[in-house]
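Annex B. Sample input.
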Amino acid sequence: MSAEGIARFTNAEIARRHFAAKKLMETNGVDALLVFGHSGRRRHNQADVYYLTNCAPQHESYVLFPAKGDPVLFVTHYNHHASAKDVSAVADVRRAHKRPAHQLVEEMQKKGLGSARIGLVGTFFYQDMDGLRSGLPSATFKDVSDAFRLVRLTKSEEELAFQRKAAAGCNTIIEAFRREIRPGVTEHDLLVLSEEVAWKSGCEPDFLFLSSTPMRASKYCVPNQNVSKRKLMMGDVINTELTVAYGLYSAQILRPFFLGEPTSEYERIREVMVEAYNRMVAVARPGKTAQDIHEASGYIESCGFTTVDGVAHGFGIDLLPPSIRSPSFDPPVPLTLTKNMTLVLQPNPTTKDELMGMQVGDMGLITDDGYVSMHGTVNDVIRLG
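Annex B, continued. Sample output.
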């Protein structure tokens, strides 16, 4: 089979990740990692498997990664084995049953892990865990999923190159929206356009959340997950949340559009939204914390609005820490920002009845000089018509 044109990381990058995984095992007192992945949305629930193997199977998969010895990738669909071997950075790729606990137990015993401490990464099916516990009664299991996600939070230069390609793909789609949004175009038309442009730009579409509503009779405050066939009209506000990937590494941009002149209420929401974004940018720098961003977003509530979505989150392959809401919600889990983290800042001021609101933002890189947008565009409403 051909792997031509498929995004790949270098051997040096994979070695860096394997070293980081072994450090994690040492820190957490485990002898091996057992990593589980499944297709999820666009295979993003394979993120942990992909991180170690450069392979994201379409169905359930498992990586046994011992502190000593070679890792093994198990692929649960018989006919997916050849394709996985083509792209995997792990040499030992095996077919596995749909419920492969007995195969995992057998391999652990062969590797001398029958009484070991096993670190679990991922959300395992209960049938698998029942089989592992009954087959390895002397082994102990520890969930290290959160610790593994923190390892993935800080990006290498190769990972950042993938995310920059994804960010460029997002920008190309937003420019296509700028050209094509007009009365009579449907929300569904924009969804189709976003996927076509993503593929043509060399990226992979992940998702487009979108809502459109008349500003003078507003019904929606944030992008919707179910894109309708409603036709756009003059006087609409259109909220978009767009995610595009390259080699599964994602970028995200959130842009609202005014189709015509805004109402005074929506112009006020715009002012608060842009100022909140700028305040969050000002504190998103090395040494600052998730709590600092949480507090900076309080500007939204001080202006009489609330929020519906989070105001910031880590990004890479799907969501990563930190997950930050505005101050009327629970504070974030403690986390200090460091260089080469990628974050999405996305303030979403909303009226308290949740009938009016907008959301703006993008993915940025934490650098020595602070937060730098990886999209390089102005975070504001795009005015059309």
